[in-house]
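SEQUENCE-TO-STRUCTURE ENTRY
===========================
What this section holds: a protein sequence and its matching fold, both as plain text.
Tokens: labelled as protein backbone structure tokens, with as many entries as the chain has residues.
Question of interest: how does this chain fold, as expressed in backbone structure tokens?
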Amino acid sequence: MLQTLDVALGLSFIFFLFSVLVSTTGEMILSWSNARGKMLWKALSHMLPEGMRGNSVTPMNDFVQHPLMAALHRQTSTNDGVAKHFPSYLSNSQFSQVLMDLLETKGVEAKAETRWEQVQAGIATLGDGASGSLKALSRDAERNLLPGQEPLSVFQFLAGQWFDAVMDRTTGMYKRLSQLWNFGIGIVLAVVCNLNTIAITRALSTNDDLRAAFVQKAEASVKAQSELAVKLGVEESKGARAVFDEAVNELADAGFPVGWNKTTAKAWGTNPVSMLFESLLGWLMAGAAAALGAQFWFDLMKKIINMRGTGAKPASGTANADGEAGMVGPIPPAGLIIDGTESRQG
């Protein structure tokens, strides 16, 4: 049982380092292509559509070009250019603030008097796509009024809730996109590094010294609460790459076909067919592991270490004479016998 946990811990440590590299590479690509901004653009296109351009829907131009929104992105002459430079994040307060100012401005142009009438008149000036959802929110605002409340403030609150609900769904879509990218990048890097999951598992299962070394590395990483597993950046990526290269070299030095070296060339030359199928399966498994993310493997390492009995001591409880965590509360006097719900002094 302990050997199985040690093998799992060693694999988790390698996948943790590999996932940091993959996640950093994937995030750099997605940031360069402004994937977050484009997803936010698409979400606003469904919330406040302006019109169709081919097969794509664009967000309401007055909303995108509002001064408070225009300050967040680069001004261009085309919607495609705006989408490329659209901000990655937008809070519900910013959304509702821009929306309210836009509707009130349109309501003033329609000669409405009170602010609530201006908002309703502004909604009426919008196209069918954008006005439908906002009309539903205005009706809800009037129905859900409490004593002392104004429909204007309730409408603004409901608009913020609507935005949050859409952003939750958009965040889920972005996470799925990130996992897909990580899977693809993971397979590519697994082939480049020849990270064969099957060979690594075999190495950790049969080599006691190698397994002990990786268990020690994993315990040290968890004990130090390495930020490498949580934060992604250039410096973290460089650190992960150095440790990852060291891990691959240790496996290769142990005589297992990991990495591209003389040992690998000999293994492929001896039995190329079996090595091909084994490597393909091992690379796919490494890509799937990278798609789970570094945080998943870091948390798994902590759980395995706790299962091995080497985790941190519980925070609660008192220490006994041997200095170990003991029972909470005073020790009962000698002769006290507890039987069911009754207790008696012997």
